[in-house]
Design a protein that fits this description.
There is one protein chain. The chain is built from 2 helices and 5 strands, in the order βαββαββ. 24% of the residues are buried. Helix content is 28%, strand content 22%. It has a single domain, classed as Muramoyl-pentapeptide Carboxypeptidase, domain 2 (2-Layer Sandwich), CATH 3.30.1380.10. The chain is α+β, with helices and mostly antiparallel strands. Strands 1-2-3-5-4 form a 5-stranded mixed sheet, covered by helices on one side.
Amino acid sequence: MKIKEGANIQGLDLRMRPVLIAADDIWSSVGQELVVTCGLDGCHSAGSMHYYGLALDFRTHYFSETTKKIVFEELIETLGCTFDVVMHSTHIHVEYKLL
């Protein structure tokens, strides 16, 4: 796993640890190293879970559309209903669901 230069995961909430483990395993299973592109850094909408250490973004530009969909669906299945997984054009966003 790599952390993109400038990305900050210092202070990441411990509830996000299973996300990092699952994503790293899934990316490895398709022959790609996981790259975390955003944690507590960046500009996001008001109330974004990124600001609370409860969201991560993962690089996907190196995947074909088919592989990106497979990775996305595996993340959803692995993480279950505790997390929201959202596919964007340049990355996959995962955040903890606050109940």
